[in-house]
Specification:
Blueprint: E1 4-7, H1 13-31, H2 37-40, H3 43-50, E2 54-60, E3 63-73, E4 76-84, H4 93-104, E5 110-116, H5 120-128, E6 132-140, E7 143-151
Parallel strand pairs: 4-5
Antiparallel strand pairs: 1-2, 2-3, 3-4, 5-7, 6-7
């Protein structure tokens, strides 16, 4: 199975949004909350986001199977909305997308992302990829967000003579 990972284009946004809404149904079920931001985002908001951040897509034989987003702010790369189509999960696509966004945003000192405390599959993946919890935030009575980070060990080191 060959997976192509590339930067998304404006034409990719509608299918990415459709996949996002499909994928986040699982998260909504876990927390019994269907008003989470990824389910409420519309195409206009995604287009505005696209103008400011990097969005990558994963395709198999031209079929969209995943996506991830990120941007750098104050030496920290913020990674978010990692999605993989349900029929393609547990095949390493999420791991590849995280690696690709880390490479794309390599000009930083560290990477950060977050997920809900009950999202055990996400937490397991991020832990395997070297992310460690550094902060928890109560988002509501039934939702605690866990923030994770890891240093950018691939950062180019400048040697000053």
């Amino acid at each position: 199975m060959h997976i192509d990972i590339s930067k998304a284009t404006l034409a990719d946004l509608k299918p990415i949004l459709r996949l996002q809404k499909e994928c986040y149904q699982t998260e909504a079920e876990i927390y019994n909350d269907y008003d989470i931001p990824p389910l409420l985002q519309d195409l206009k908001a995604l287009e505005e986001e696209f103008a400011q951040i990097t969005i990558l897509k994963a395709e198999i034989r031209g079929e969209l199977v995943g996506s991830v987003r990120g941007y750098i702010d104050n030496e920290t790369a913020h990674i978010g909305k990692l999605i993989v189509a349900p029929d393609f999960q547990n095949r390493g696509i999420g791991r590849l997308l995280i690696g690709a966004i880390e490479s794309t945003l390599a000009g930083c000192q560290q990477f950060e992302l977050f997920t809900g405390s009950l999202s055990s599959k996400n937490l397991y993946l991020y832990s395997k990829l070297g992310y460690q919890e550094f902060y928890r935030q109560e988002a509501s009575n039934h939702l605690t967000m866990i923030f994770l980070r890891k240093p950018n060990t691939n950062e180019r080191t400048q040697i000053l003579l």
